[in-house]
Design a protein that fits this description.
Layout: E1 8-9, E2 12-13, H1 15-26, E3 39-44, E4 49-53, H2 66-76, E5 82-88, H3 99-107, E6 109-117, E7 120-123, H4 124-127
Parallel strand pairs: 5-6
Antiparallel strand pairs: 1-2, 3-4, 3-5, 6-7
The structure holds tetrahydrodeoxyuridine (THU).
């Protein structure tokens, strides 16, 4: 992605650029069973962007959602925290992350993380209220 296309300028997230990255990822989905391709993209705190697509399996329950491959990319490319996230369906329209994936995203959230949703931009806390997270495992 060139500098001009970067999904952030100053403090403002360029949601169009992030959605475009998610759509590009969606085109790489492996979804022969559901025929429901999904793409996801995230802007990390350090300015990096990562993306993911769903990868299905003949053993249906083993399907990886787009968010699964995205969080793998975060870790694989140096780790970090998500500042902004977008997910799209096969038409390129905003798609709500499934319940499990909200939890996956929560783990890697930056404070105030925002998501592009079907009802506009929402915070992670709005999308997964009263979440269980790493802080619950702290014993002292
Ligand atoms: N899917 C995702 O990739 N992310 C979601 O948050 C919702 C569902 C995928 C899984 C499966 O490959 C297809 O969409 C249909 O459920």
């Amino acid at each position: 992605m060139s500098r001009a296309d970067a999904p952030v300028s100053g403090e403002t997230v360029d949601w169009d650029a992030l959605a475009a990255l998610a759509r590009e990822a969606m085109l790489r989905a492996y979804a022969p069973y559901s025929r429901f391709p999904v793409g996801a993209a995230a802007l990390l705190e350090d300015g990096r962007t990562v993306s993911g697509c769903n990868v299905e399996n003949a053993s249906y329950g083993l399907t990886l959602c787009a968010e699964c491959t995205l969080v793998g990319q975060i870790q694989l490319t140096g780790g970090g925290r998500i500042r902004a996230f977008a997910c799209v369906d096969g038409n390129g329209d905003a798609l709500m992350p499934c319940g499990r994936c909200r939890q996956l995203l929560y783990e890697f959230r930056a404070p105030g993380m925002q998501l592009m949703t079907t009802r506009g931009v929402r915070t992670m806390d709005e999308v997964l209220p009263d979440a269980f997270g790493p802080e619950n495992l702290e014993t002292d």
